[in-house]
Automatic annotation (TrEMBL):
Topology of the protein relative to the lipid bilayer: Multi-pass membrane protein
One CC-aspect GO term: plasma membrane
Protein name per UniProt: Glycosyltransferase
Signal peptide (from-to): none
Regions that span the bilayer: 227-248, 263-285
Keyword set, alphabetical order: Glycosyltransferase, Membrane, Transferase, Transmembrane, Transmembrane helix
Organism this protein belongs to: Maribellus comscasis
Length: 304
């Protein structure tokens, strides 16, 4: 059986067309499939349209969350309710094209790998958004210990063993593409051109994109702490240089006058210390969230 997991938040403009195309492409592959749609606390008619569509399509499961918990939490909820031997994750905004579903399935069958990830060869989006995302992927790929797939989002297909491995992760601040790389297994890619939204408003604002990038970097890289170490070493070098300069200037008779040198030294070391505290604070906050051990999401209703 093939399971398709789709998180949705205020997508009443697109949801019917999206489901029609997803079902059409799944029926071309197999009679045994399910579509798990997660309504992530939508405030429009998304849930009503899902339930209306379900009346004539029994393969549709609807997981209604109690409020908006975010994309990663909604995807996790969908994965935990998926029962297929092959599980597909995709976004619900038509930027992960439903016509790619047969390509993903055929690729994983032909190559006999555990995960096939759809990689964005090009993106038909705003220049600023493309720039932010490209910079993030370059930085994230270069500073993480595990090999990452650049320009890859949530869109993928995985076998049940990889699906179950992902479900073993219990962390609160999660980044599923990073987790997908972390678990290993045999992986392959398929290239596609990512289109722009067909309608509705983008739900990932610039603020949310930066927050997701921060979660990814703090979860899968020790570089923030390394930056603290390197800044501290630079500070020590500057401090030693200042001592040598001060002693030499005293003996040579051109000691600096005024407060500028003292002010600059205090400003430099104060800035370094505040940077350290900010980065350490981010780690402490994430530790606090994990220690709280709160549920990642709450299901209000499950329509099976």
């Amino acid at each position: 059986m093939i399971s398709v997991v789709i998180p949705l938040y205020n997508e009443n403009v697109l949801v019917n067309r999206l489901l029609e195309e997803v079902f059409l492409n799944l029926k071309s592959l197999s009679d045994s499939f399910e579509v798990v749609c997660v309504d992530d606390g939508s405030t429009d008619s998304t849930l009503l349209k899902l339930l209306e569509f379900k009346k004539n399509n029994k393969q549709l499961k609807v997981v209604s969350l109690s409020r908006n918990f975010g994309l990663q939490a909604a995807l996790t909820a969908g994965l935990e309710h998926a029962n297929g031997e092959y599980v597909i994750m995709m976004d619900g905004d038509f930027q992960d094209p439903p016509e790619m579903i047969p390509d993903l399935y055929n690729k994983i069958i032909e190559t006999n790998v555990d995960i096939v990830t759809a990689v964005r060869e090009s993106r038909n989006e705003r220049f600023s958004k493309k720039l932010y995302i490209n910079i993030f992927h370059k930085i994230f790929s270069s500073i993480t210990e595990e090999k990452q797939i650049s320009n890859a989002g949530n869109f993928c297909i995985m076998k049940r063993n990889a699906h179950q491995a992902i479900l073993k992760f219990a962390e609160r601040n999660r980044y599923l593409p990073g987790i997908r790389s972390f678990i290993g297994f045999k992986q392959d890619i398929i290239l596609f051109e990512r289109p722009d939204r067909l309608g509705g408003k983008a739900k990932m604002s610039r603020k949310k994109l930066f927050a997701l990038a921060a979660d990814a970097i703090y979860s899968f890289s020790k570089w923030p702490i390394k930056v603290c170490l390197y800044l501290g070493l630079v500070g020590i070098v500057v401090f030693l240089g200042a001592i040598i300069y001060t002693v030499a200037s005293k003996f040579l008779g051109f000691a600096p006058t005024g407060w500028s040198s003292t002010f600059l030294a205090i400003s430099f070391f104060g800035s370094v210390q505040l940077t350290f505290l900010g980065i350490i604070g981010e780690y402490i906050f994430r530790i606090f969230k994990e220690v709280q051990n709160r549920p990642i999401y709450f299901v209000k209703e499950f329509y099976e």
